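Quick one, T. Sequence first:
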Amino acid sequence: MTTIPSRLAQVTRISSNPSEARTRVIDLYRAWVRAAPEIVELYALPVTPAYFRHCIRQKFEANRHVTDQRAIEVLLLKGRQELQETLNIWKQPDHVMGILLQPSERPQRSFLQKFYEGRDEDSVRPAASGVV
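Structure tokens:
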């Protein structure tokens, strides 16, 4: 299957107000949801499109609290880029499976607790391993 890089290309733009940013976030979410069956099929993922949609929903919900306009613009840019790279098959299946990994919730530790342990786990933890 050949990829057509320009089929998802969009001009980068900045939202002028929060309501426009909200509309763009909803459009991006809809694009991900609509692309879920295609992504599951392209990468032969061992999950259903419904589960993939659920994981996408969780990723968007994790950033629901963001209110800074510039941060929203960065998240929109990264989300659109991830979608384009995923649909153009510029990723390996393991990269796409990274979307499905649940973030590991670890209890917050103070600086002294980390110091006493003698290491900083956040800096040595593999990025998309799924292993705590």
